[in-house]
Amino acid sequence: MLIDRLIALGLENGLIKNEDIIYIKNRILAMLKKDEPEKFDDICTLNLYDTLDAICEIAIKNGIIDDNLQAKDIFSSTIMNLFLDKPSVVNEKFWSFYKMDNKVATDWFYNQSKSSNYIKVDRIAKNKVYNASSKYGNLVLTINLSKPEKDPKQIALEKLAPSSSYPKCLLCVENEGYEGRINHPDRANHRMIRMQLNNRDWCMQYSPYLYYNEHCIVLSTSHIPMQINEETFKTLLDFTTVLPHYFIGSNADLPIVGGSILSHEHYQGGNYTFPMTNANKLFNIELDDQDVKAYAINWPLSTIRLSSINKASLVKIGTRILNAWRNYSDAEQDILSNTNGTPHNTVTPICRRRGENYEMDLVLRNNRQTDEFPDGIFHPHKDVHHIKKENIGLIEVMGLAVLPGRLLEELTFVKNYILGKSNEVADYHKAWADELKFKYSKLDDIEQYVVSALGDKFSRVLEDAGVFKLNETGIAAFKKFTKSF
Question: Which of 59, 81, 140, 231 could join 400 in a cystine, given CB atoms 3.0 to 4.6 angstroms apart?
């Protein structure tokens, strides 16, 4: 019954055809170590995720897999791999659809990635998403609940597991089709789209735990470190030529202001409009290249926006700004380009299309640390750590907060504290909760009141990461920098 339901879902989602039914049924029976299907009169109406869970429970009961989340994920992915074509066929289909329309191609690949349970749709649905207004425009706040907590048995098994260098990291192409192990995620049902960008080989995949619509990752086929340079800009702009309905951006290439994986060159993109995209102009920037328009945007992280129909002109100006910033210091703004030869300045670049035009945002970053700010001068400061203390990477830079799952319960305690229903609130939230309680009016909707306050905190997080503050002195210093290139 469960196998038949899974096959019915595969047919419904276009993963397989009628001619595949017997083959797939027999392969799943083999995985369950059964010689024939069980006979049931009941009709199964479970969704994809519940069906896979039920099959995994049978595998656990029969001693085929261990009773932990990772073992179940590996078994589920191996089953769903039966419903997928080999990578060569997937790529042929993608580029065949691409000839019709680039969006048709990405829609097909995105839907396949969801229907095969590579994208964990059921877990992503647990995330909480809020909108909060700010002086910079609307901000998006997400509380990340999608990644389930590991049980003690799995944690113990991970500690005992032998180390392995294959695949070298989570972003290596060798993950495609990799079964997984207790300390490495399941990737049997993982597929990538090959593409040439800037005369190099790249792969596009979707993130299994999406933070936004069609959240994709573009990764180098070579395991080389993150780097931001002229070639980076060419690659990003090439991607927006291939898929003009997708934006693409790169985390910075230095610790603290970079992403979580600096050892493998990769970018993130997707079909999504971030709050930063709609930021207003702060001031114009004069350039000697008439092909390129430039201006600073009204955004808490100091950002220069370039626009042109000519990719080569954008690359030239972008590289000029990057090189100027790499060597720029302004002690009055706490900006030093290096300390004893250790570099501090880099950029977070983001590219998109607006009609026929190419647009590039260069977010100025600095990772210098001091005794006063051991986590970084331009990193969330201690008074906002109760909300966000992790690095501010590409996604947050653009105005989407990825907040820790602990906040969901903690914010309930904060709301009850404000309403006088309880005195139980985490010590690190106490000062904030006291302030909110003092300002609270019974006319306010408590849910919206706390979400708005959370948005204010995230605005502060972003402001801390800005190298030129949006006050008279900071804007004057920002304008001074724009005269240096």
Answer: 140
Helix (H) or strand (E) holding 287: none
DSSP character for 36? S
Cα distance between residue 471 and residue 134, in whole Å? 16
**φ/ψ (deg, to 5) at 358:** -95, 140
Ranges of beta strands (E only) in 83-189 are 128-134, 137-143
Strands laid side by side in the 400-403 sheet: 128-134, 137-143, 400-403
Quote the pLDDT of residue 40: 66
Question: Is the CB of residue 212 less than 8 Å from the CB of residue 394?
Answer: no
* pLDDT tens-digit series, residues 403-435: 999 999 999 999 999 999 999 999 999 999 999
Cis, peptide link before residue 255, omega less than 30° from 0: no
Helix, strand, or coil (residue 87): helix
Beta partners for 229?
A: none
Residues 6+ away with beta carbon under 8 Å from 63: none
Q: What is the mean pLDDT of residues 106-129?
A: 98
- Please check the confidence at residue 389 and state whether its pLDDT lies above 70: yes
β-strand pairing of 293-297 with 247-249: unpaired
pTM for the model? 0.95
Rounded to the nearest 10 degrees, how much is the dihedral formed by the CA atoms of 42, 43, 49, 55? 40
pLDDT, tens digit (0-9, with 9 covering 90-100), for 301-331: 999 999 999 999 999 999 999 999 999 999 9
List, in order, residues 6 or more apart from 169 with CB less than 8 Å away. Answer: 223, 261, 263, 264
Closest CA to 264 of 296, 303, 222: 222
Give the whole-angstrom CA distance, residue 190 versus residue 178. Answer: 8
Between CA 28 and CA 333 the distance in angstroms is: 63
Cα–Cα distance measured from residue 288 to residue 291, given in angstroms and rounded to the nearest whole number:
9
CA 104 to mean position of chain CA atoms: 23
Which backbone phi and psi does 256 adopt, to 5 degrees?
75, -50
Amino acid at 428: Y
The DSSP output letter for 485 is -
Q: Which three-class secondary structure state does DSSP give residue 358?
A: strand
What is the number of other CB atoms lying within 10 angstroms of the CB of residue 91? 18
Cα 356 → chain centroid: 26
Sequence-distant (6+) residues with CB within 8 A of 322 are 228, 229, 230, 347, 362
CB 475 within 8 A of CB 465: no
Q: Give me the phi and psi of 228, to 5 degrees please.
A: -115, 115
**In the beta sheet, which residues pair with residue 139?**
132
Rounded CA separation 334/134 (Å): 26
| Most distant CA pair in the chain, distance | 77
pLDDT for res 154: 72
